[in-house]
Amino acid sequence: MVLHPPPHQHEQFILKSALYSRLLVLSLTITWRILASPYDSSAPLNLPCLTANHTHTHTLPQSQTLLLPKLASALENGIVWDSVYFVRIAQCGGYEYEQTYAFLPLLPISISFLSRHRAVLAFSGYLICNVAFVFAALYLYRLSMIILKDPEIALRATILFCFNPASIFYSSIYSESLYALLSFAGLYYFVKGGNNLASLFFALSGCARSNGVLNAGYLCFQTMHRAYNAMFQQKRTALALGTVIAGALRSVFVFAPFVAFQAYGYYNMCKGRLPDELRPWCKARVPLLYNYIQSHYWGVGFLKYFQLKQLPNFLLASPVLSVALYSVVYYAKSRPENFFSLGFRTSIEEKSSGVVFLSDDFYRSKKAGNVDKSSVKAKGIFV
Length: 383
Known about the structure:
This protein is an all-alpha fold. It is built from 17 helices and no strands. It has helices at 10-35, 69-77, 82-92, 106-111, 118-148, 151-162, 167-171, 176-191, 195-208, 216-233, 237-269, 289-298, 311-334, 336-340, 348-353, 360-368, 373-378. Helix 1 runs antiparallel to helix 5 (118-148) and helix 9 packs parallel to helix 11 (237-269). The longest helix is centred in the middle third of the chain and has 33 residues, at 237-269. The model is unreliable at 55-60 and 373-383 (pLDDT under 50). The chain crosses the membrane at residues 120-141, 153-173, 238-264, 314-332.
């Protein structure tokens, strides 16, 4: 029995599935909020902003200033957990407290264009996050098509993403959807050979979530392989040096937004204060605000999560973790040479079939039909 549409209709099917999955999640969210009291009771809290130029927005309850006060109240009741911080930053036009610097600025900036009213910010947040998820699913499918080269498997992977166990985070006012969209888009253009455009999307992902800087790893890995090929296979030292410089510049570009945000936090929280007023992280040799906040306020750090009280969360994540671990072990056993050599022993055909690892000159020649695969094999080019 055929369960999926033909390949040329897959993208349309993906968009519909992503949209329906968001509607399902939002419906379930509303239903459970009606049936049960929320665990987080911070939604009604709406204290005046500390900055004087924004205090006028709080002279009246904001739901009373809108045409649909019941809808506004319902939207504001959905501002819980991390959403409180994102909306607060957008509402007050900046970062008021030290702990708010754990939340990067892309989402607050994105939701603040229409209005500073709390209900409108909530509506903008829900709209942007859910729309971002739909397009993230589309980019994931396109990326999977290139990597997997199988429309059916790519479709199944994307459908699993649409209905993943963590779906609620992608439909709330959280940064996960924007991050997924920017990361998938960056990877898509990366494997298509558009390194500059990929670097832009990776840098923007670092404006959404701190782990966006890890996307620079794709560029570094590619640079390592290209430089190796240029130096040891093509014997072109100048090309190898140019490859390293270009890769380094792109990686710095990806890191730049996060580093700039840390500098912004240092300037606001440390600059111009007396020594006895300085926070501990201000006095550090490398004053990294983000690490301090995560450790001090949320107890986040290397292996800190591995506690007995977190056992229920590990059990909840165990199905997905098991599948991921099985996939890694399966690939390592089936392709041990590729796995343990970090791809340096992968054949030229495999390298050129997906992710771009070799030099731009090679791919320009490949597109022009000037690459003789038999001669490449004879030269023993394994990069």
